[in-house]
Design brief:
Elements: H1 8-15, H2 24-42, E1 53-57, E2 69-83, E3 93-94, E4 101-104, E5 115-120, E6 136-142, H3 152-165, E7 169-173, E8 184-188, E9 197-201, E10 205-209, H4 213-220, H5 229-238
Helix pairs in contact: 1-2, 2-3, 2-4, 3-4
C-alpha cells in the first residue's frame, strides 16, 4: 500500500469487516487509487520519496523582484540549489543557504506546512536567478508533508473517496478543515457492487465483490463536484491557487 493516505484497516473498520478478510487486497488498491486521485485534484502530494529528487525550474517572465524569487513545488527539509548562468545546461553555481538564499514561508515548519518559495538573500546574496529555460536546479525532499505527517483531513478524504467508489453514500461530520480536531464519518448502504462473488455481513448487508479494477476505474472517473460538500471543502483547502492573468 505504497503512499496511501489511509490504511485498509481503517477502511475495513468503517465497512464493518473483520481482519484477514479475503478482499483486503482489493480495498488496498482502491485506497491507493483514491490517494492518487487526491494528488491530481489538489495538484500536490502528501508524501515524500525516500531519496532526494532533482527538479528543474524556469524563472517566470516578467521576472518577479528582478529575479530574486522563484516559486517551486512543495518541499520539506533542506535543498541543494544550483543555477545555470550561461544557458549551456551545466549547473555550475551552487548557492549557500543563509548566505545566498532563504526559504519561505518563513514559518512553514511551525505551521506544519511545506516551503514553496526560494528567495535571494538581499544583503549577502552573491547570485541572481538566471532567466534561461530550466536554468534552476533544486534537489531535495518534495511533497506537502511526509506520509506519516499528512493532514488528518486528507486521511478522512481518502477514506470517503474510497467509500464512494465502493458504492456507499457518505455522511461526514465534524471534519476539521485545518486537520487539528477530531473527525467522524458514517456510511449508509446498501453497498451494491457488481461482481462474481458475494457474502453477507450480519443480517442486513450483502456485499457482492469482484476484482479491484472496476473500483479503481470508479475512483478515476469521480468528479469532485459530485462529492459531498465536506469532501469538496477539504479539496479546496489544499488545492494550489494559481494567478491567472
Amino acid at each position: 500500500m505504497a503512499n496511501s493516505y489511509a490504511t485498509h484497516t481503517e477502511l475495513m473498520n468503517r465497512l464493518g469487516l473483520e481482519e484477514n478478510d479475503r478482499h483486503e487486497g482489493m480495498l488496498i488498491d482502491v485506497l491507493e487509487a483514491a490517494s492518487r486521485w487526491i494528488d491530481i485534484e489538489c495538484e500536490r502530494r502528501f508524501f515524500t520519496n525516500s531519496t532526494p529528487e532533482t527538479r528543474y525550474y524556469t524563472l517566470a517572465y516578467p521576472y518577479g523582484n528582478g529575479g530574486t524569487k522563484i516559486e517551486i513545488d512543495d518541499f520539506v527539509g533542506t535543498i541543494t540549489l544550483q543555477t545555470d548562468n550561461n544557458g549551456d545546461g551545466v549547473y555550475e553555481t551552487t548557492w549557500t543557504a543563509g548566505t545566498d538564499y532563504w526559504l519561505s514561508p518563513k514559518n512553514a515548519v511551525l505551521d506544519n506546512k511545506p516551503y514553496t518559495c526560494i528567495n535571494r538573500t538581499q544583503l549577502t546574496g552573491r547570485y541572481y536567478f538566471p532567466g534561461y529555460e530550466y536554468g534552476i536546479s533544486v534537489t531535495g525532499t518534495f511533497g506537502y508533508s511526509t506520509l506519516v505527517n499528512r493532514p488528518t483531513n486528507i486521511r478522512e478524504l481518502c477514506i470517503n473517496v474510497a467509500l464512494i467508489a465502493l458504492g456507499y453514500s457518505t455522511s461526514v461530520g465534524s471534519v476539521s478543515l485545518a486537520g487539528s480536531s477530531s473527525s467522524s464519518s458514517s456510511v449508509s448502504g446498501p453497498l451494491v457492487i457488481p461482481g462474481v462473488s458475494s457474502y453477507r455481513i450480519g443480517q442486513e448487508l450483502e456485499v457482492k465483490l469482484t476484482d479491484s479494477s472496476s473500483f479503481v476505474s470508479a475512483v478515476n472517473s469521480l468528479n469532485s463536484a459530485s462529492l459531498p460538500m465536506s469532501c469538496r471543502n477539504i479539496i479546496d483547502l489544499y488545492t494550489k491557487r494559481r494567478l491567472v492573468i
